[in-house]
From TrEMBL:
This is DUF72 domain-containing protein. It comes from Streptomyces lucensis JCM 4490. Gene3D superfamilies: Protein of unknown function UPF0759. Residues 284-299 have a biased composition (Low complexity). Transmembrane segments: none annotated. It holds the Pfam family DUF72. Residues 280-299 are annotated as: Disordered. Coiled coil: none annotated.
Length: 299
């Protein structure tokens, strides 16, 4: 049986907190995360992209979530080649040359910070989202391969933001050779930066789909402009055959919503969960997954 886990990218976005989705009295981190786990069985932790977390923080995440819950964790910006402010680095690493030695040290601290999630069985995958300026070619492949080598003992997922990666079959073969999950995306189409909605399976253990919304301002404007989109049931239903096809070939599928404006992401996630459940009325939730949040599909 494949577990199809539906959730959102983050659970502490300020606009979500203002939306009223969390019940009154759920302002502190403990109650917010515990409430989230009653609704969804997976979440993407985005904050490690901006700053390295402390092991104490991820230990609390593990303690506040039930067995079977999954965290997909974004890689720190420096590890994926994004512009990274010195202030985002630990104080003792600021001012060091941005070379392989610094990358290795940052990776070691990132891995140390995520060890509580892995040790508790709550780590879904590391998510290495590469920037649009990383275009396919030998140098780019070497950069990704070096990251995979550092993370060779970890689950590893890759999202490319330059569309040229998915204009060739080479990309899927490359990620399969790395034993890395290819992240599929739903994003606006018809723009120069549009990523096609391809769904290659590159490892049998996990598939990931991230829904970014369909704003015409994708790639430009503010964060709110880029991600402001309320998915309709029809738009999500179009993805059901693709999600089922992924479930037929992998042990677990994570469906994550990144249209993080107010409660749009949690609303879309709930709609997708309900659509999957409605299409599979004979299925029961997985035993180790919270009943309101679990969706399953036969392999």
């Amino acid at each position: 049986m494949t577990r199809i886990l539906v959730g959102t990218c983050g659970w502490t976005d300020p606009s979500l907190l203002r939306s009223g989705w969390y019940p009154p009295g759920h302002r502190d981190p403990d109650k917010r995360l515990r409430h989230y786990t009653t609704r969804f069985p997976v979440v993407e932790a985005d904050s490690p992209y901006y700053a390295l977390p402390a092991p104490r923080t991820t230990r609390l995440w593990a303690d506040r979530t039930p067995p079977g819950f999954r965290f997909d964790v974004k890689a720190f910006a420096l590890l994926t080649g994004h512009p990274t402010r010195s202030s985002a680095l630990p104080a003792d690493l600021r001012g060091r040359p941005r070379d392989e030695g610094l990358l290795a040290e940052v990776w070691d601290r990132y891995a140390e910070a995520l060890a509580p999630l892995r040790d508790s069985g709550r780590l879904g995958t590391l998510l290495f989202q590469y920037p649009p300026h990383l275009v396919p070619g030998p140098e780019a492949e070497a950069f990704v391969r070096a990251a995979r080598e550092r993370a060779r003992d970890w689950p590893f997922a890759v999202e490319f933001r330059h569309p040229a990666w998915w204009l060739t079959d080479r990309t899927a073969a490359f990620l399969a050779d790395l034993d890395a999950t290819a992240v599929a995306v739903d994003a606006p189409q018809g723009l120069p930066t549009s990523i096609p909605p391809v769904t290659p399976v590159t490892t049998p253990r996990l598939s990931v789909v991230r829904f970014h919304g369909r704003s015409p301002h994708w790639g430009t404007g503010s964060k709110e402009d880029r991600f402001r989109h309320a998915y309709t049931a029809a738009e999500l239903a179009d993805w059901l055959p693709r999600v089922r096809a992924l479930a037929a070939r992998t042990e677990e599928v994570h469906v994550l919503f990144n249209n993080c404006c107010a409660d749009a992401a949690v609303t879309a996630a709930e709609t997708m969960r309900n659509l999957l459940t409605a299409r599979l009325p004979h299925q029961a939730p997985a035993a180790d997954t919270p009943a309101p949040a679990a969706d399953t599909s036969p392999r």
